[in-house]
Amino acid sequence: MPPQIKRLPTRVVSIGPVKIGGSNPIAVQSMTNTFTTDVRATVRQIKACADAGCAIIRVAVPDQKALAAFAAIKKLSPLPVVADIHFDYRLAVGAIEAGADKIRINPGNLQGAAKLKEIIAAAKKRHVPIRIGVNSGSAKKDLVRLASEYCEFFEAQKFYNLVLSLKSSSVVDSLDAYTRMARRRDYPLHIGITEAGTEYYGALKSAVGLGALLTRGLGDTVRVSLTANPVKEVLAARHILKSLGLLACPEVISCPTCGRTQIDIIGLANTVEQRLQKLNKNLTVAVMGCVVNGPGEAAQADYGIAGGRGQGIIFAKGRRLKTVPERKLVEELFKLIERSSRFS
């Protein structure tokens, strides 16, 4: 078996019913990009994220109108909801009272120590965790030094229900900050590369940064920050976790295509990947373009298909099971997977 990533031990924090830290699974997060005051659209987006495999959702609360909507959203959300607060401490207190499962703040922009203590008191009363989020774009000090100072303030108030994030748009700076912070505190880490970019480039940049952090055992929750639909963030984060064996879900392996390919291998691979998304099971499925890269090179796959001219074979663990027309390859593959899943 391949070596397993050894995760750094951290405290356990409960975000609604979802526990992070310790030996709990790494939770995928995202953030809505609808106007929070549009309750229907926001809840619809949260449900789409949940269907894609999101575990925790964050919602912006920029003003009192958004705060009123947040209470309604929280009641309708299928996921734990985190309130994202900036500048006005009253919004943080109000979100806690409205049932937020966690709040995210940057303590440096919340009107001073006295107001911050009011937030802490409200969070203590309702057992709501607080994520201290510091970003390189808004920090004048070294991120680790700044986050440590904030931790000391919270700890002086006897508040330890914390999650930390130290994000930068630089992969190298993020790696440095999270690695150094993990040596100082054992609070769970929410990891990400902030302002990563567009759907394609941002996903690649996040994969590099998050992959490096995760292989060091760092990270209890993850977000891939994209200039795109939040569902795309969720899917990218799940793929990153899956590639490292940190998520129980199917994996598609497929050949890169070449001049030997005589079937629509790209279309087949995408269709198989989409249909496997809702299957919460460790499973490897191969989609191969010809007999050269068929059952032999994909012998480790649980199930697979390999194509020829207008037809292909279905195989399992390298063993050929049947030959079917190209148009039936996906359906026959999934009949086999579903039948096997019922008896496993």
Automatic annotation (TrEMBL):
Cofactor(s) needed for function: [4Fe-4S] cluster
Domain IspG C-terminal per the UniProt entry, residue ranges: 251-338
Protein's pathway: Isoprenoid biosynthesis; isopentenyl diphosphate biosynthesis via DXP pathway; isopentenyl diphosphate from 1-deoxy-D-xylulose 5-phosphate: step 5/6
Positions contributing to [4Fe-4S] cluster binding: 255, 258, 290, 297
Record has Transcription regulation as a keyword: no
InterPro entries assigned: Dihydropteroate_synth-like_sf, IspG_bac, IspG_bac-typ, IspG_C, IspG_TIM, NO2/SO3_Rdtase_4Fe4S_sf
Domain IspG TIM-barrel: 10-237
HAMAP family: IspG (MF_00159)
The family this protein is said to belong to: Belongs to the IspG family.
UniProt protein name: 4-hydroxy-3-methylbut-2-en-1-yl diphosphate synthase (flavodoxin)
